[in-house]
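Repro case for the chain-ordering regression, as requested:
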Amino acid sequence: MHTKIIWPLTALAAILLFNLFFVPGFFHMEIKDGHLFGSLIDILNRAAPIMVIAIGMTLVIAKEGIDISVGSVLAIAGAVAISLIGVVPLWMAIGAALIVGALCGLWNGVLIAYLGIQPMVGTLILMTVGRGIAQLITEGKVLTTDSKSYGFIGKGFFLGLPFSIFIAAFVFLLVLYLKKRTALGLFLEATGTNKVSSEYAGVEPRKIYLFVYIVCGLCAAIAGLLVSSNISSADANNAGLWIELDAILAVVIGGTSMRGGRFFLAGTVIGALFIQSLTTTIYSMGVPPERIMVVKAIVVIIVSLMQSDRFRQMFQQKSKKAVIG
Amino acid sequence: GSNNGGSGGASSSPANTGTNTESAAPASSPAADKKIVLGFSQIGAESGWRDAETQSIKDTFGNDPQFELKFSDAQQKQENQIKAIRTFISQKVDAIALAPVVESGWETVLEEAKAANIPVFLLDRTVKVSDESLYTSFIGSDFILEGQNAAKTMIDQLGADKQVNIVELQGTVGASAANDRQKGFQEIVDANPNYKIIKSQSGDFTRAKGKEVMEAFLKSDGKNIQAVYAHNDDMALGAIQAIEEYGLKPGTDIFVVSVDGIKAAFEAIRDGKLNVTVECNPLLGPQLKQAILDYQAGQTLEKWIKSDEDVYFGQKAIDALPNRLY
Amino acid sequence: MKLERMRLGLRINQNNIIIFSTLLLILLLYGAGSVLYTGFFSWQVFFNLFIDNAYLIIVATGLAFVIITGGIDLSVASVVAFISVVSASLLQQGMNAYAVMAICLIIGILFGAAQGYLIQRFDLHPWIVTLAGMFLARGASYFITTQSIVIENPTYLSISKYKIHLVGSNFISVSVIIALVVVALAVYAAKYTEFGRAVFAVGGSEKSSVLMGLPVPRITVLVYTISGFCSALGGIVFTFYMLSGYNLHLMGMEMDAIAACVIGGILLTGGFGYLVGPLLGVICSGIIQTIVMFQGTLSSWWTKIAVGFLLFLFILLQRVIVIRRQRRRVINHGSTMTPPQLQPLTNAEYSKL
Amino acid sequence: MRSGDVLLKMEEVSKTFPGVKALSDVNFTLRQGEVHALMGENGAGKSTLIKVLTGVHPMDQGKVYLNGRPIVARSPLEAQHLGISTVYQEINLCTNLSVAENLYIGRLPRRRGAIDWKKMHADSEQLLRRLNLNLDVKKSLSDYSVAIQQMVAIARAVDMSSGVLILDEPTSSLDAQEVQQLFAVMRKLRDEGMGIVFVTHFLDQVYEITDRITILRNGSLVGEYETSKLSKSSLVTHMIGREWKEEDEHRKTESSYTPEVVMAAKSLTRAGSIKPVSLSVRKGEVVGLAGLLGSGRSEFANLIFGIDQADSGVMTLGAEQFQSMNPKKAIRQGIGFCPEDRKIAGIVGELTIRENIVLALQAKKGIFNYIPLKKQQEIAQRFIDLLRIKTPSMEQRIDNLSGGNQQKVILARWLATEPKLLILDEPTRGIDVGSKGEIRRLILDLAKSGLSILIISSELQEMIECADRIVVLRDRMQVGEISGGDMNEASIMKMIAEGGGTSEQYPQTGS
Ligand SMILES: Nc1ncnc2c1ncn2[C@@H]1O[C@H](COP(=O)(O)OP(=O)(O)OP(=O)(O)O)[C@@H](O)[C@H]1O
Ligand SMILES: Nc1ncnc2c1ncn2[C@@H]1O[C@H](COP(=O)(O)OP(=O)(O)OP(=O)(O)O)[C@@H](O)[C@H]1O
Ligand SMILES: [Mg+2]
Ligand SMILES: [Mg+2]
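-- result from build under test --
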């Protein structure tokens, strides 16, 4: 079971190694104003939103679903939080954003679990409408806030480390707890693999689906808080655009199959870190912007080939033959 | 070409009966009780700047009893804009305003508009067509000029003989605003051997991306950076945050120049974090209205009606701040 | 008991229901638009649905084959954009228009086949491979140019501007004919060729298809090749439509294509659907957009909300119709002792495609 | 070539799966014009042998000769081209396609390049008639039951075969008539000179149809025998590798039920599916449900367990009454249900044996009342030992188990919930003789300890041996009940055929 995680780890190690040689000062870390400071810390910090969303997405994918509305939900949550700051106490603004995220998840869940709409299409609706709602809330403008305490979520430091890392870690541990210490993991993997059998065994797939989409919505909302607090503003138009693709990529690189079933939370986290390291590397390497897409495409293919059993078998056979011949 | 409301199958549709007055020359002034219908195809609402433009048009035409505005939002898709124009044509509007999402690909549909005798006004971006008569006028600014102004002002402010390393935050790769703002800027910078663009990366016109890219630049080049040029204010504002978090003073340690002139940029100048913003005026409503009225009155219009724009920095920006609408 | 059987026999089969409900709802929407907005109910507005969406119809139809095998192709939109850039830049260099079209189609075929090969040979998930394909095609067009290139080639211009007049002065474009031909071919291939049925078999169960002795690897590669080909053809048609090549064209169009397939009754899980479905799906979303445009006063965000809401309404109604008609599937037990009556009424399943 | 000549020869075939040596140096010879049984316990490697032969799995080592020429089939398609056609153990058809397409896909009839649907439908009907099946071939296969699907798979293979026909447990879900029908076809093909490999766990069938028997045990060859010269008991002895005595055949000796009613269903009805059925089960009682294929036995079980909702009628469990039911509720009320279609409704393929076993128990306890891993392992180990599930480890994925062992895991899943009433729909389908006896013993032991059991089995003999009482269904209607000494195959078949007995009690409605 744990062999699955080797490949994303290898990929991550490879990209860090690459940086060691080609990006001077990449591993340099210093303590400034009592907090750690360096590219690695930046990557952790930057990866936090993708990580959180990808964790939610892992659950959804484990049940053989998909949620492409996370980017919009992220935008809504950010918009809600920032538009409420100053109007109501901070905790209420944050709470409202989380509740809205959960409601978005609930909506997706109902469409998919109870109306039987296919996940991609069901969440496509919220993807479209959601951004509209986010714009409605901000009236198309970029809302800003100067609340220092709100800014703490996304760019504050705690024990010398960015606070966002703690949030991501908290989400990870919470979901890990649900997976390992409750039957959620078992039920989710069961329904994701064979819905009918699970139903016969007394699992209620619909409730599981609903729960999973709510968690995913919540995760998107948390990511929305992280993103909007990091720049102290809510940009309804661009926040979280295409993040669903990165999140899905992280999940798959992490070893969870899009065909549902087994899921690997730690793998997802590593996948997210890998994607962010790649992005940051590309930025610091000075790769011309128009090349980024191609680089990303090639790296994605290489990583997934490495994960493919059949690909590795090909090499093993080749080397076997070479030895014999 | 045939005019669209003609004979044949069209008569079978109820919508086409009666009320078809403007198949004649468009210059004939409309009946006193008849409103001038304007179809406006907007790109979307991808930035505060664009929203200000939309608002300006809506305010100008929505509050004027002489006009009726049909607004269509294309959500960043050219196909949607083409569809919108087709729809306007079939609704027989009196004029079409178009803020084209890209420069190319308008030939066919503009010909259809021309065949239907509907004047087309381009807003804020122009189009590439083989036949200039396909549109009536272009109202908007010159992105290349904006890039040039940004570079010139920066060199003025920093001194031509100072060694300056610049990092550039580009707009969305391929967007004409990004292409031209880069081009104009590069032209001026290349003419001065002391000024060098050391890194250039796309920040997608957004604050979050602008900040992220700037962070990476600072990590790899750090103290080597003397100036930032951002293709829009949002990215500049993101970059400012990154610089602050890196422990430097934006505006002092690193010179920041950007384009657009949104209100937040003026505030940043006031706070000393942003040095220069080159205005790109979105408030095109009044100019468009005048153009339409002139056209209806049979006057010939200039092909490029330039919008009123300026470069803001220092005290000038602070003075202008209270009057900024967007 | 007899009565029961009769009623059940008369039931429209599940696949048909979705197609019927889609048609019904399209009529409803179209009717609503006609009542609400002057100028809506005209031939040209109707034809425009096809003119404006010809490329999408082609792309979605190609994609449908992939979806029916249970796969997905996210690269379609980027390939269309890439093809537009390639053709524009080749035409700019003065290449013959037909040679350019041929090159584009070959690119599409190779691209699709490569994706299919990776998916099949290494058992990679189509999402990932085609997502990389999407990045690659977009990125590759940046290598050619980041600018938009206008096409001035006379052949392209004349094809683009050629109007085929139907019912009076109303017209359709050449692209519409191409799109309809593609749909017709797809419908034929799906129903009347061994390959078409094998595509459905693979979608039903890949494992069983292998065990039944179907050449599953070949079929998999082939469907992605078809999708690549249709994307390239869609790219050419789109180039006629736009007369320009630009790498930012059609961002996110893959979702429109997928949605069109699903609205047209093709299950994303594979194995079910009719090849006219994508056409209907495209027309449906076209009408929704036309309604929103005729409405003409919505602000940007309300436009998004309205489009999404209408989409939701459509899908919801479709589900309701399907669920109501579906009820529980009858398990028909034929046995040697009690042979069930043959039920001639279910011809509908195959005569309807 | 004449009948008796060697048609297919496999030499020294080995195959290893991670953790399992599924085949080691197995030899197998098939002659022309014979039906050759491949026998062995669950997990002995029968299906694996067939799969390596037909190219589903590559073989690690070994040679295959067809008509004396060495062959290598790398895929089922290649095997087909070589004239080997196969019905695999898990029915492998595409249920989304029509019956006719399933019969002909890969070789659809064509006219002027296009598929000739008319011809295909006509051909299919004719083909199915050979197996005495009368189906609407245009309907999608999913509209038909497992048994029908099995027959369709057989029809396809029979029609395609030229030389070698392999049938891996084709009769597991067929009833007696259908089996006879199949045998008739097999005999005809054999007489035409074909070689047929036949896998089954029904000994009677082996003696009825086969000419020769090859026995595998633990992936190794035990030997090849002529059927007529091998006694039943020595066959079983060879299979299980130890002496097999008649005592292993467990029979009900005394009834142990108490008057306390555990479950009482009153006029449960579901439109279009089943007419009113009333049935009560007492504590410690074993009740059998008999009937032909499609008589509504499974439908009734589904109603009790809440897979389907009854339109009318009530169910009493203990002191409580229920109008509607769902699986979770049923499990909490102490019902367990081992469904008949293992692949679709039983196993959860990607999960391990341990997880499959604890799944229902966990559902019973609820999502937050997590069973600690230690406990899970204990439970799993207990049932692996109890049911003798053959696996290298409890962390093995269940879909890597042999068919019969999968069935045992599902059984274990329900036993783990410690139910009051256990519904077993075809519990011994695909299970080898040895284990069958054990399962029967288990049922009896459980009943003795107070568990009530509702058993559905197509093997009447099996039901007669365990049940205290048998309820007979026909045409989705309850037609009667037999108990005690009256229970024998003849009386049950008579009741099924005549629908007699207590029919006044359940007046026939409709036609
Ligand atoms: N794909 C696989 N991966 C791992 N192990 C497997 C796989 N297929 C079969 N096995 C193992 O190989 C052994 C032989 O299995 P096989 O299916 O051939 O048994 P069988 O004789 O057909 O039994 P049954 O009568 O129950 O069908 C079993 O121990 C099984 O667990
Ligand atoms: N919704 C329905 N409408 C009409 N008939 C139905 C419906 N559902 C099931 N049937 C029929 O009810 C009968 C009972 O099927 P069921 O699967 O219960 O039979 P069974 O006796 O258990 O046979 P098997 O041994 O194959 O399991 C079948 O003939 C089936 O065709
Ligand atoms: Mg087997
Ligand atoms: Mg049954």
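Ordering looks correct now. The pocket of magnesium ion (ligand 4) is lined by residues D 297-298, 340, 425 (CB under 6 Å).
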